[in-house]
Structure formats: structure tokens, C-alpha cells
Amino acid sequence: MPAEGQADLAHPEAADWVLGTLEAAESEVFQLHLTGCGHCQLAVAEFGRVGRILQHLPPAAEPPPDLEERTISDVLDAAAGDRTETHLPRITAAFPPAAQPAPPGPAAQIPLAPPQLASYYRPSPGTRRRPVPWAEDDEPVRAVAKVYPAAAVAVNQPPRRRRRTGRYASAGAAVAVLVVAIAFLPGFSGNTSAEPSVLGTEAPVVIPLHSAPGTAASGQAMAQRMPGGWSIQLSVHRLKPLAAGEFYECWFAGAGNKPGHLVLISAGTFSTGRSGSASVSMWSAANPRQFRTVEITAQSPGRASQLGRVILSGVVRT
Amino acid sequence: MCVLAGTSPVTNSGTVVNGSGPSGAILNLVRKKSVIEGEPIGKVDRQTGWGSSVSFSDAEVRIAAQEAQLIVQIADGTIEEPMKELCRRYEKHLYRFGVQMLGDEGLAEEMVRESFQRLWRSAGRYDARRDRPDAFLFEIARSVAAEIRENRPSRALLSAEDVQLPPLPDSVDQILDSLTVREALGKLSSPHAEVLRLALDEGLTQSEIAERLELPLDTVKTRTFHGMQALRSALGERGGDAG
């Protein structure tokens, strides 16, 4: 119980005693004094809380000057997406069939969800994202594998080997994915009752990307599930210019990914030019809810089978 | 979210605090009910926020009411200006909290951005009678920080992967207290800040500080005392019993 007294009248050593900055002998003397001095007892009691807080003080770090701008931009983009979601523009047949007219009725209408418009599909406030089982998501991959075996290699092989087979498999898989995606479209598959509901109806997965401390690079990846894989809209800012011939590559890393045990699926490569900024559309078979870490690496052609240094990274929230 | 806003200078020792600083706020607390319903602020219980033992100035009440109103505007669909204002007031404090909790400036940025996104998404659920604006925002930030800690990149960008992170504070009040003290520490005049820095960061005793600064020992002790008084006063203004 604090003694009666006035903290302002306490000895200055009261603060030093709380901070533990008195010399040992002086500390013992003050401790004896404390038992009989109400002013110092009150001061020690008052300073005690400050002293405890000082032990766990946050750093005096200053946020980057453009953080406010980027933060507001994020919010406004998301808000714009929500507003648009309730009255999505629709188009009839994204790939107009040349010989066969699109069947009439709702089944022929495909919600507009090309990658560049993926931001339209933002969840409304409070919307719960529908869980997507892995098996369900794996379906497009297996469909691709039937069409183009290399795609199966790219997905099913151990990661290291996958990288080495890499470029051919990726190119083949991309072609195969396109074939399958087109095959899913009513006008091309001949199945006019094909379910278009999957197109753009699920909230996209948004992954903010950050760089290592001391660097200004930033970015965001937005993944929208589509038949045949995931459409990725990637935007990056203030990436450093790379040496001639180098390029950036976007990866999805799965659980347990680490040097010597890579669990990675590529979403493609890109460059930025002098501005250091780019907004590119990519495609990946990786389900970002399974391969939850997005990494942007700097690569060089001669070492394409080796992972480059990580420039940006972000994690999909659960 | 007024607590960090406009911490008043402490003048009882003459020159302890430099100026009044920006109006941007560090947690000048106003306890909910009083803010919105215009009841006399009177006494407030630190634990529940509903009792009473601490008085708040009219300025603190006004700031809290403004910030509550900003959240209401966001919920009503007027987003940009209210969000900018809240961002201006709290970005730095959120960022510092993020750096402390995540040990990584990049992750701290991510936490700040995600926190404001969630503030927008949950603004409609904000209840000014139940939540302090600052506590509402920092509760969101705490939750985001916890998620980021659980989902750190599988391949860290820096060796900080192995850094031992401090435990997440049990309560938002702990976060606000530490940010208040950090803010007040930054506003101390340099002689007072210097002795505290040498004591806290370098672990020097008063004698060693006196030797380092070539000052009489009594001067060092007095400066330390006044510096601690200033920090204690800042905490008191935040609405806690500073004892």
C-alpha cells in the first residue's frame, strides 16, 4: 500500500532505482531509505509501470513515406471491387464461336472474369470465402495432364526435378491449360450446359507482397480460380533494374519449402523496364490456398534451374 | 482513437518536453459511452472502461468523437477522406507495433495495409458505445499480427526468421501504453532523452552516464527523474492510473 506523500518531492534516486541504474552500494542505501520515505515510495510506485513498459518498448521506426498512399489505394481498390460485384457486366461468349452460334439463355452467358478484371470480384464485407477442397481444385490439373502429359510431370514430380524439366513442361502445360480452358467454354466444348458458375464467382485470393527491410519494392498478387488453374494478376512497384538478360519469376511455394527441398510451382516470368513497375497477367496450376507463399525472384537464363534471390514475398492468409 | 493524439507537453520540470508535437494522436483515450452520448466523462474504470477514476480533457473527448465519426462515415460508404485521416493518425503507431511484433519492416507494412483493409470491412460492426476507436483499430492490428506470425514465409527474406519475437500483448491497453511511452520518449528534450537512452539502450549506470556526458552525477539523476516523470504523465493522460 503506497505511503502518503508526494512523488514530486521524492529523491531523484527513485527513478534510478526503478531503472536499475544505481551503483550497487547506492542501491542498498536507497532501499533502506525507501522503507521510511513516503514520497519515494509513491514515486517508485508511479514509476514502476513506466519502467515495465520501457522494458518492452516498440522501436522508433518510421514507416516508408508512401505507405499511407499504398494503404489507401488498397482500400479504395477493394471498395471499388465490392461496388462492382453487385452489378457485374456480362458478355456473351468470351471467345465468339465462328461456326457455331452460342446457345441462347443464361448458360451462354459467361461472367466477365478475365485476369485484368479480376479485381472486380472482391468479397463483400463479411463474406465468408467458400472453402475449396484440394481434390476439387486438382481436377483441372488432372484434366490438363490427360491432354498434355508434360503438365502432369510439372505438377507431380518432386520439385527439384520439376524445375529441371521445367521450361518445356511449363510451356506445354500453358498450352494445355489454354486448350482445356477453351474446352470448358460452352461454345467450344459443345456442351451447352457446361457450368459457367465457377468462373469468377469465388472471391479472389489477394496476397500483398513485401520486400526485405531497407528496400522500397512492393506488390500484390491476386489469384482468381478459373477452369484449368488460377489466373494471377500481379502488380509490382519499385523493383530494381536487373542486369542485362535477367528477369523476374513468380512462384507459389508450398508447405515445407526450403533450400534442398523445394516445393514450388511457377506462375511465369516477367520484366519491368526502367520504371521498376509492372502489371502482368499470369497463370498457374498452384492452388494458392495450398501453395500459400508467393515469391518473386530475380533469375538469370544461365541458371534458370536454380532459384534466384527472393525480391518480394507474401503469404496467403487463411 | 484518440489516445496517441496530441500528447500534451509536460512542463513541470520546465523543459522536459519539446513542443506539443503534431496533433496526430496517440491514444488520448475517451471511453466510449461518454464520447458518443455526451455524458460527463468523469471517472472511468481502467479494466472495463465503464467505471470511473480518470478524467479526460475536452480535447480528448473531441478527438475520440471525431475518430468514432470517421469510422461511421467509412461504414456509410464515404471511405477515402476518413480513411486518410485515420491512416495519418495511426499509421506510424501501427507500423511500430508491427515492427516490434513481427521483427520485420516488410511484414509490418503488410500488417498496416491489411489492418486498414479490415477496418474498412468491419467498420459496419463498429459500436461506438462499446469500442474505443483506437482500441478497435489496434485489436484488428493485433489479430493481423498474430496471423502473420503464424504464416511467416516458408523461406524468409532475411535472417530474422530465427529472431525471437516478443509475445503478443494480452490486451490492447498494453499496446497503447507502450506506444504512448514511445511517443512521449520521442518528445523529451534531448538532455532528458539522452540520459534515458544511455540507461535503457546501453545499460549504463548513473555514474557511467555522468562520466560519458561529462556531467555532475546529480544532474544526471535529476534529468532521469524528470524524464521518468514526463513519461509517467503521458501515461496518465492516456487514461490509466499511472501508478
Explained architecture:
The complex is a heterodimer of chains A (318) and B (243). Chain A is of the alpha+beta class. Among the domains of chain A are: 48 residues, Arc Repressor Mutant, subunit A (Orthogonal Bundle); 111 residues, Sandwich (Immunoglobulin-like), CATH 2.60.40.200. Chain A is built from eight helices and ten strands. In chain A, the strands form two sheets. Chain A has an eight-stranded antiparallel sheet with strand order 7-6-9-10-3-4-5-8. In chain A, strands 1-2 form a two-stranded antiparallel ribbon. In chain A, strand 3 and strand 4 form a beta hairpin. Chain A is elongated and about 80 Å long. Chain B has a single domain, classed as Orthogonal Bundle (Rna Polymerase Sigma Factor, Chain: A), CATH 1.10.1740.10. Chain B is built from nine helices and two strands. In chain B, strands 1-2 form a two-stranded antiparallel sheet. In chain B, helix 3 packs across helix 5 and helix 4 packs across helix 5. In chain B, 53% of the residues are buried.
SSE topology:
The complex is a heterodimer of chains A (318) and B (243).
Chain A: H1 13-19, H2 24-34, H3 38-54, H4 67-85, E1 90-92, E2 109-111, H5 134-147, H6 149-156, H7 159-184, H8 186-189, E3 205-211, E4 218-226, E5 229-237, E6 247-253, E7 264-270, E8 278-284, E9 293-299, E10 309-315
Antiparallel strand pairs in A: 1-2, 3-4, 3-10, 4-5, 5-8, 6-7, 6-9, 9-10
Helix pairs in contact in A: 1-3, 5-6, 5-7, 6-7
Chain B: E1 3-5, E2 25-27, H1 32-37, H2 58-75, H3 80-102, H4 105-122, H5 133-150, H6 172-187, H7 190-200, H8 206-213, H9 217-238
Helix pairs in contact in B: 2-3, 3-4, 3-5, 4-5, 5-6, 6-9, 7-9, 8-9
